[in-house]
Amino acid sequence: MRRSSLHLVAACAAALLAGCTNLGPDYEEPDVAWLAEWETDLYGQALTKAPDKEQDLSFWWKAFNDPVLNELIEVARKENPSLRIAGLAVLESKALLGIATGAQYPQVQRANGSWARVDRWPTEGDDSGNHSDLNTYDVGFDVGWEADFWGRYRRGIESADAAFFASITNQQNAQVLLAAQVADAYYAYRTTARQIQIAQENADLQLRSLEITNKLFKSGQSAELDVQQARTQYLATLSTIPDLEIALKQIENALCVLLGRSPGDLPEMASVPATLPELNPLFIDAFPANLLLRRPDVRTAAWGVAAQSAQIGVAKADLYPSITLFGTIGWSGSSVNGTDSTLSTGVGPAFTWNLFNYGRIENNVRVQDARLQQVIESYQLTVLAAASEVDSAAISVVKTLSQQSLLAEALEAAERSLSLSTKRYQEGYSDFQRVLSAQQSRAARSASYVANQGAHISSVISFYRALGGGWQPATSEDLVPETIRQIMAERTDWDGMLEEPVPLPKP
User: Fold this and answer.
1) Fewer CB within 10 Å, N- or C-terminus of the chain?
2) How far apart are CA 152 and CA 352, in angstroms?
């Protein structure tokens, strides 16, 4: 009889598995209708044709040919706390995937047991006041497996798997942001250092004018007004330097944070010259639309759609009966004379069906569907923002570059004007007001030229970031440094997960 029951349960299980289905929609990559026809002229203007091969976007900063920048980015990739947090999130999502995967196996695998000593003191009848005692005990094992008839657990695994890959692409996006932030801060430091240098050069020129006016005043060849005007301009220029020095220190502190260091001096910056480089032309042949869909943040958004799509199936499964196969075995007994120990077993199917839920389950399905549409719209917004970033960075690259030659000519003219006006003043052919105007023009043109250099470099960095450059496939060491993995392994049994290779998400 027991054997026939087991055969019946096995047959039922086979039939259930054969009829399993997945409720809810299967994932489809959201379509971006406008992207196929999108082509910005600015993209082509920001680039030059590559002579041999396309530039490697994974290490775009190496195109700057700056060993200090290379070193800083390498340090940041190892020590930046935000990047570590993104790496730890990958481990978290891997563990969550393990939870979802484990749910498809027997959900109940429970051993139980008890022992009790019972003392009795009857208070009425013939046995009143006679003490007696007995021991009772039982031990058992229960197993229960909900057949995944409607795909509840398969959809759950699908959702967790997509969330896992989303965490990987999110870590890749953190790499993109970090490389751009370090490069931006590095060249902002050099730009500010150059601005301090320029301010000091202007102050030196104005000091010489002050000395000239003072000499002429003492010889009776000019008025005291010239001296005071020269002094005012000289001191005003000097007063701008402390603000620039404050900005320089703030940038240095921001770099320290990116490098995972406490605020202070950066020894790497000691050898950095207070000049800005002339950048090489950009060589990127890939069509921007293709690069957009490969951006880590766009891939993260796509995986988010996949994860939420599966949640609709999980919610819909609650509309249907839950079919479970169960089994139990137990042993019980007591110390009462004449009582035998008992071994009992049970096996069979069971079902539960939440028939009257007053719309809770249906509305939960609607909630999940609304959330799916939200993440689809979020994906569309991410792609739009990415295209906008490419276009904005491209126009900035183009226009700041076109400004450089104009500003260089303007600075050259301002320096010539200052030289001529100073000479004519010394010879007595013009008043000091022309010298003051020439000094102000020279100071303004030099500041504008340096600011434009910094803006052009920043726009190039933004362009590389907008294209999604600056990430490499991560290893377990990249996710979490060895020292931290050792601490985590001592604290918790990770069953080798800390050393497992990181899969590369499907495109």
Assistant:
1) N
2) 15
Q: Which residues contact 182 (CB under 8 A, 6 or more apart)?
A: 69, 72, 73, 76, 255, 258, 259
- For residue 329, what are the β-bridge partners? 141, 345
pLDDT for res 338: 60
Q: Is 53 or 255 the better-scoring residue by pLDDT?
A: 255
Q: Considering the domain 2-24+41-121+128-320+338-363+377-491 in this protein, what is its CATH number?
A: 1.20.1600.10
DSSP for 415-447 reads HHHHHHHHHHHHTTSS-HHHHHHHHHHHHHHHH
Average pLDDT (38-62) is 72
User: What's residue 11's pLDDT?
Assistant: 45
Rg (CA), the chain: 37
Q: What is the DSSP letter of 38?
A: -
Alpha-carbon gap, residue 420 to 222, rounded angstroms: 18
- Alpha-carbon distance values, 47 to 32, 238, 240, 430 (Å): 25, 40, 37, 49
Q: Counting Cβ atoms within 10 Å, is residue 442 exposed (0-12), middle (13-18) or buried (19+)?
A: buried
Q: Are 419 and 72 in contact (CB under 8 A)?
A: no
Place of tokens 């019972």: 118
Residue range 394-417, pLDDT digits in tens: 889 889 988 888 998 998 998 898
> In the beta sheet, which residues pair with residue 116?
136
- HSE on the CB side for 65, CA within 13 Å? 6
**CB of 303 closer than 8 Å to CB of 507:** no
Residue 104 Cα distances to 24, 157, 318, 434, 482, angstroms: 18, 9, 16, 86, 33
* Neighbouring-strand partners of residue 352: 322
Q: Is the dihedral of CA 166, 168, 174, 180 positive or negative?
A: negative
Q: What is the DSSP string of 40-73?
A: -HHHHHT----SSS---GGGGGGGG--HHHHHHH
**Which pLDDT does position 122 carry in this prediction?**
72
User: pTM score, two decimals?
Assistant: 0.86
Query: What does the block give as tokens for 364?
Result: 């939960």
Residue 3 confidence (pLDDT): 44
pLDDT for 315-361, tens place per residue?
Answer: 999 888 888 888 888 888 777 766 677 888 888 888 888 888 878 99
Amino acid at residue number 6: L
**How distant, in Å, are the alpha carbons of 203, 428, 435, 444 from that of 210?**
10, 16, 11, 19
DSSP state of 150: T
Residue 486: φ, ψ to 5°: -65, -45
pLDDT tens-digit readout, 181-236: 999 999 999 999 999 999 998 899 889 888 888 888 888 877 888 888 889 989 99
Are 465 and 396 in contact by the 8 Å Cβ rule? The answer is: no
Tokens of 283: 């060589």
